[in-house]
């Protein structure tokens, strides 16, 4: 992980370093090196603020597990809940917008079919009337 982190730092791939920091934090937490685990977890959180909210959610969840200070753990958990709720709200808005577009498209297709049938019926009646009058 440290070698991968050095490579990410050398090519300025900070987004990819978020996951490496998270994995390092999990590793150090599993071997009971809390200081190192907290360092990498906080680094992951700091970097992930500039990118996707999913990575920030993962970082906050990780900090909640690692943090020994209960007040800070509770703060991270509350931040996690607030961010998770906002992400879900944004997803619902997008889903509703997509559903509305799909519904309006289906209505447009139905109206187009109806107008096509109506035009065909008018054409058939007009053709029949012209043929009848011609005879």
Give the distance, in angstroms, between the N- and C-terminal Cα atoms. 91 Å
Number of strands: 0
User: How much is the average pLDDT?
Assistant: 90
Radius of gyration: 30 Å
Regions with little confidence, pLDDT below 50 for 5+ residues: none
Kindly state the percentage of residues in helix.
Answer: over 70%
Q: State the order of secondary-structure elements, H for helix, E for strand.
A: HHHHH
Q: Proportion of β residues?
A: under 5%
Shape type = rod-shaped
Structural class of the secondary structure composition?
mainly alpha
Largest sheet: none
What is the helix tally?
5
Protein topology:
Blueprint: H1 2-10, H2 14-30, H3 34-48, H4 53-66, H5 70-134
Structure notes:
α1 (2-10) packs antiparallel against α2 (14-30), α2 runs antiparallel to α3 (34-48) and α2 runs parallel beside α4 (53-66). It contains 5 helices and no strands. The protein has helices spanning 2-10, 14-30, 34-48, 53-66, 70-134. The chain is rod-shaped and about 100 Å long. The mean pLDDT is 90. With 135 residues, the protein is mainly α.
């Amino acid at each position: 992980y440290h070698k991968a982190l050095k490579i990410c730092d050398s090519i300025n791939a900070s987004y990819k370093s978020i996951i490496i920091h998270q994995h390092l934090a999990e590793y150090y937490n599993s071997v009971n090196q809390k200081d190192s685990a907290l360092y990498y977890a906080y680094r992951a959180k700091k970097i992930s603020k500039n990118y996707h909210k999913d990575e920030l959610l993962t970082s906050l969840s990780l900090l909640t597990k690692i943090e020994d200070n209960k007040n800070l753990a509770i703060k991270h958990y509350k931040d996690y809940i607030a961010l998770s709720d906002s992400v879900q709200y944004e997803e619902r808005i997008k889903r509703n917008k997509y559903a509305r577009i799909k519904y309006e498209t289906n209505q447009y297709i139905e109206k187009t079919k109806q107008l096509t049938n109506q035009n065909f019926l008018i054409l058939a009646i007009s053709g029949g009337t012209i043929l009848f009058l011609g005879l």
